[in-house]
């Protein structure tokens, strides 16, 4: 074989299985060998840009007599060459001086070229570049040389195409890796016949595998939490048996003892022999999601339990209320009470706020209960708050609730009474005792129909019907600056006044009858009637403690009575606490409430009715002033006027 053809055969052989990172070097060396063999001054390879619009020199060999070709834009510098190449043809120029195309001619001469041979580099029908052989003097290009160089041009074109494809693959692999890393996805490939598992760094971290240690499927299975293992093995078997895909969530126990939840997906690939060749897949750490799910499930279970409890409590409370109501059914016969009850009938179906006024013990709470029970909200329990019994500092959190940590000592979240009463009725007893700041908040709730828990400015909508009660003359309290006028008007939309018992003596007989029946039944006493003289005495007594006092008197009488006729002694006015000289001994055996009342009275008298401060009644009794005040209210103790 002639020398040139042998060279071409040798060069072509070098490109077989040539790693892509060596292609450039071998092309450069080949260009030099060809140029030297054929006595050519310069050999240049240019590649078309990715958009196919231009080209630039990428490989070049030049002898000393001719400078390397520095063409930057082949489109503008050698348009004729490019036109020929795009047509898929070879440009053969014996003497550049004969070229008609001036641009090409001038630029060829500028680069010291007098003769040129240019081959298109075509892959898959697409022009990828050009291979040019140049001479500093005019020369002929024999057919044998042209044929041989065209062959080598094809070899170069294919090598460059392979290098490009390799590069693109590597880039896309790098991008995928980057994306997988960014998404914290671990990629793995299981070579099934060789039983080796390859994984990205992330995958190794996920599965707790050392960076360089070889991994087999057995090692992976050993890492599984034992209860998850059979399920994962089954899923792998199914994928290998033909299912193809695999998706499982399982726990991996790391060598350092920690357990992580992993979600893995995989795809099986079969080899030419029809057997599973490899499985490729990805895994992500879902520990946090799983923990959140568990916490949510636990919370839901807790909510369910609480809901059940609440339902039970509700049933219990309703029964309690019904029983309680049975005992305090409103006994009345007087015209004034009938009028009040008629008003209750009118206002009950509406959502209007109601203000009940009346002396202590006249039955304000009983009336509020009756109103709620006659309203469309009767299906839910009425929520009660005694404003006098709650220390001023706590009243707001009691009414509106508070978030955990709203203030020092607020250890848990507290639902306020307004929220509890949502959809029902809130009974604010002793509303006149509400501190001014709490009054302002109450007014806002009534206007906006939403509350804000302490420590959380997010408003919560509530639908609450308000019934307020007070033994005070609120108009006077407003005048004295102790009660907000605007709140007073808001509450006083529908006022109900309960007259004292002394002004509705007609109610006394039914009340006596009702209490006697209640206590006789509760104590198992066979009482059939009340002595007429007793009834007369009761009617003559002014009842400063109102119905509560009457009830206590009857309770005591039933306790003391033996036989079927009940004798009731009304308290002597002189001995009445409100008269200021209580004497338990004088009144004979007394109920606990009476003993408590007379003791409080004695202390109050001794302190000149001073409740608060050093040596005040509260301090002597070892009670908080607010507690003492609320007890005084309950027991009907008032400073004599
Ligand atoms: N009309 C009535 N029929 C039967 N019992 C009544 C009636 N009115 C009041 N009572 C009873 O009298 C007692 C005092 O009533 P209640 O607590 O409703 O009064 P109050 O005006 O709210 O008192 P305070 O102002 O001290 O809170 C309760 O035991 C209640 O059951």
TrEMBL record:
Keywords: Activator, ATP-binding, Coiled coil, DNA-binding, Nucleotide-binding, Transcription, Transcription regulation. Residues 289-327 form a coiled coil. It holds the Pfam family PAS_3. GO terms for biological process: regulation of DNA-templated transcription. The keyword Cell membrane does not apply. SMART domains: AAA (SM00382), GAF (SM00065), PAS (SM00091). PROSITE patterns: PAC, PAS, SIGMA54_INTERACT_1, SIGMA54_INTERACT_3, SIGMA54_INTERACT_4. CDD domains: AAA (cd00009), PAS (cd00130). InterPro entries: AAA+_ATPase, AAA_lid_NorR, GAF, GAF-like_dom_sf, Homeodomain-like_sf, HTH_Fis, P-loop_NTPase, PAS. The keyword Transmembrane helix does not apply. GO terms for molecular function: ATP binding; sequence-specific DNA binding. Residues 172-243 form the PAS domain. Residues 330-559 form the Sigma-54 factor interaction domain. Residues 246-298 form the PAC domain. PANTHER family: PTS-DEPENDENT DIHYDROXYACETONE KINASE OPERON REGULATORY PROTEIN-RELATED, TRANSCRIPTIONAL REGULATORY PROTEIN. This is PAS domain S-box-containing protein. It comes from Methylomagnum ishizawai.
């Amino acid at each position: 074989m002639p020398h040139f053809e042998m060279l071409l055969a040798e060069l072509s052989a070098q490109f077989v299985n040539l790693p892509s990172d060596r292609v450039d070097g071998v092309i450069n060396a080949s260009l030099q060998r060809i140029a030297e063999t054929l006595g050519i001054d310069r050999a240049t390879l240019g590649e078309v840009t990715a958009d196919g619009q231009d080209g630039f020199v990428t490989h070049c060999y030049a002898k000393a007599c001719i400078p390397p070709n520095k063409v930057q834009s082949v489109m503008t510098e050698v348009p004729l060459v490019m036109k020929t190449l795009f047509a898929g043809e070879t440009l053969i120029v014996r003497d550049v001086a004969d070229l008609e195309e001036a641009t090409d001619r001038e630029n060829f001469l500028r680069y010291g070229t007098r003769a040129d041979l240019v081959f298109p580099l075509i892959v898959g029908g697409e022009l990828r570049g050009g291979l040019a052989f140049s001479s500093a003097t005019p020369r002929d290009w024999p057919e044998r040389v042209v044929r041989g160089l065209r062959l080598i041009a094809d070899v170069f074109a294919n090598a460059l195409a392979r290098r490009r494809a390799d590069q693109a693959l590597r880039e896309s692999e790098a991008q995928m890796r980057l994306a997988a890393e960014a998404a914290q996805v671990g990629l793995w490939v299981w070579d099934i016949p060789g039983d080796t598992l390859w994984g990205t760094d992330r995958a190794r971290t996920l599965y707790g595998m050392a960076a360089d240690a070889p991994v087999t499927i057995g090692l992976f299975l050993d890492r599984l939490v034992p209860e998850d293992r059979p399920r994962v093995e089954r899923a792998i078997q199914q994928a290998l048996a033909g299912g193809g895909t695999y998706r499982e969530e399982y726990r991996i126990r790391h060598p350092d003892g920690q357990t992580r939840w992993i979600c893995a997906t995989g795809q099986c690939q079969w080899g030419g022999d029809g057997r599973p060749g490899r499985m490729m897949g990805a895994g992500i750490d879902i520990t946090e999601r799983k923990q959140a799910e568990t916490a949510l499930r636990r919370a839901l279970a807790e909510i369910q339990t609480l809901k059940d409890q609440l339902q039970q409590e509700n049933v219990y409370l309703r029964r309690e209320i019904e029983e309680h109501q049975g005992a305090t059914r409103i006994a009345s016969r007087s015209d004034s009470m009938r009028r009040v009850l008629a008003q209750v009938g009118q206002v009950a179906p509406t959502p209007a706020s109601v203000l009940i006024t009346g002396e202590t013990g006249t039955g304000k709470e009983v009336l509020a209960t009756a109103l709620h029970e006659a309203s469309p909200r009767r299906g839910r329990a009425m929520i009660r708050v005694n404003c006098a019994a709650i220390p001023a500092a706590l009243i707001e959190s009691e009414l509106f609730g508070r978030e955990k940590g709203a203030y020092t000592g607020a250890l848990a979240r507290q639902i306020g009474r307004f929220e509890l009463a949502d959809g029902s009725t809130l009974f604010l007893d002793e509303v006149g005792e509400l501190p001014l700041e709490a009054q302002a908040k109450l007014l806002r709730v009534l206007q906006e129909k939403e509350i804000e828990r302490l420590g959380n400015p997010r408003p919560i909508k509530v639908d609450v019907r308000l019934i307020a009660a007070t033994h005070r003359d609120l108009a006077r309290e407003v005048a004295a600056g102790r009660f907000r006028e605007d709140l007073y008007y808001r509450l006083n939309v529908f006022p109900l006044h309960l007259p004292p018992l002394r002004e509705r003596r007609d109610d006394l007989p039914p009340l006596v009858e009702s209490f006697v029946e209640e206590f006789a039944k509760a104590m198992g006493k066979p009482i059939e009637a009340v002595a007429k003289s007793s009834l007369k005495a009761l009617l003559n007594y002014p009842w400063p403690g109102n119905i509560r006092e009457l009830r206590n008197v009857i309770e005591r009488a039933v306790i003391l009575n033996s036989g079927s006729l009940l004798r009731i002694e009304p308290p002597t006015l002189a001995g009445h606490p409100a008269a200021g000289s209580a004497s338990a001994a004088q009144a004979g055996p007394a109920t606990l409430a009476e003993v408590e009342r007379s003791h409080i009275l004695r202390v109050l008298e001794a302190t000149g009715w001073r409740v608060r401060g050093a040596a005040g009644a509260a301090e002597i009794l070892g009670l908080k002033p607010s507690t003492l005040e609320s007890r005084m209210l309950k027991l009907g103790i008032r400073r004599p006027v």
